[in-house]
């Protein structure tokens, strides 16, 4: 019974976190707005505990900031925030791939090839949820081989926000084609134990993803102004 309660609480927390994140990204809560726990309890129909846990998670993602004596406030999610997050990710992932290369087994490489095949299939089918999942799994396999859970935790904390922004703004067609090619080149560099190429490819892959997302956000903002 105790385990069932824990699992239920985890499910509630995840559900509240996802709903609150989506509401923030969709403009239900304005940038800088204070998030009052009592109001969130009423809105989402849960107790204070999952609300507090969700706010802590979203603070880690950069969506919410907790101010001393002032509580939780919505962060400004703009191009500067996204650019900074991707720049941090580029630095961390370069470090991780250099370390991972030392421990990447043939079994792990085969796992990467399988995930990449599934990613390519999802791109062809235009299955957005699947391609996001396979892309995330691809990078997690590489990062996990580095044996640095603290570094991977930093990336994971930010992934929720990026994932939801991608769901909202999407990818350009050319970006998905580039991502497929990048993944193939990353696997090739790993097989050849080519650290120099792997580092360059990793940095390129992350920074081009940053540019694509920012452009998609700018295009959406321009369309919104035109419609207004």
Automatic annotation (TrEMBL):
Q: What PROSITE patterns does its record include?
A: HTH_GNTR (PS50949)
Q: Which organism is it from?
A: Paenibacillus algorifonticola
Q: Which SMART domains match?
A: FCD (SM00895), HTH_GNTR (SM00345)
- What molecular functions are annotated in GO for this chain? DNA binding; DNA-binding transcription factor activity
Domain of life, source organism: Bacteria
* Keywords noted in UniProt: DNA-binding, Transcription, Transcription regulation
Q: Quick check: keyword Magnesium in the entry?
A: no
CDD domains, per database record: WHTH_GntR (cd07377)
Q: What Pfam families is this protein classified in?
A: FCD, GntR
Per UniProt, residues of the HTH gntR-type domain are 10-77
- InterPro entries with a match to the protein in the record: GntR_C, TF_FadR/GntR_C, Tscrpt_reg_HTH_GntR, WH-like_DNA-bd_sf, WH_DNA-bd_sf
Keyword Lipoprotein attached: no
For this entry, the protein name equals DNA-binding transcriptional regulator, GntR family
């Amino acid at each position: 019974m105790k385990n069932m309660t824990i699992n239920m609480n985890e499910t509630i927390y995840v559900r509240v976190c996802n709903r609150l994140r989506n509401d923030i990204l969709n403009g239900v809560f304005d940038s800088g707005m204070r998030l009052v726990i009592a109001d969130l309890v009423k809105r989402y129909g849960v107790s204070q505990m999952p609300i507090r846990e969700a706010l802590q998670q979203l603070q880690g993602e950069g969506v919410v900031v907790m101010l001393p004596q002032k509580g939780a406030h919505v962060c400004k999610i703009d191009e500067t925030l996204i650019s900074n997050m991707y720049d941090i990710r580029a630095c961390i992932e370069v470090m991780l791939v250099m370390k991972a290369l030392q421990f990447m087994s043939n079994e792990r490489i085969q796992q990467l090839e399988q995930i990449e095949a599934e990613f390519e299939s999802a791109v062809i089918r235009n299955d957005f949820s699947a391609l996001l999942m396979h892309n995330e799994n691809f990078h997690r396999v590489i990062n996990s081989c580095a044996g640095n859970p603290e570094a991977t935790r930093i990336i994971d904390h930010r992934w929720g926000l990026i994932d939801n922004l991608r769901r909202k703004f999407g990818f350009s067609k050319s970006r998905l084609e580039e991502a497929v090619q990048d993944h193939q080149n990353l696997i090739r560099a790993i097989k050849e134990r080519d650290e120099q190429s792997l580092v360059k490819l990793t940095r390129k892959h992350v920074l081009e993803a940053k540019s694509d997302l920012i452009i998609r956000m700018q295009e959406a903002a321009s369309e919104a102004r035109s419609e207004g």
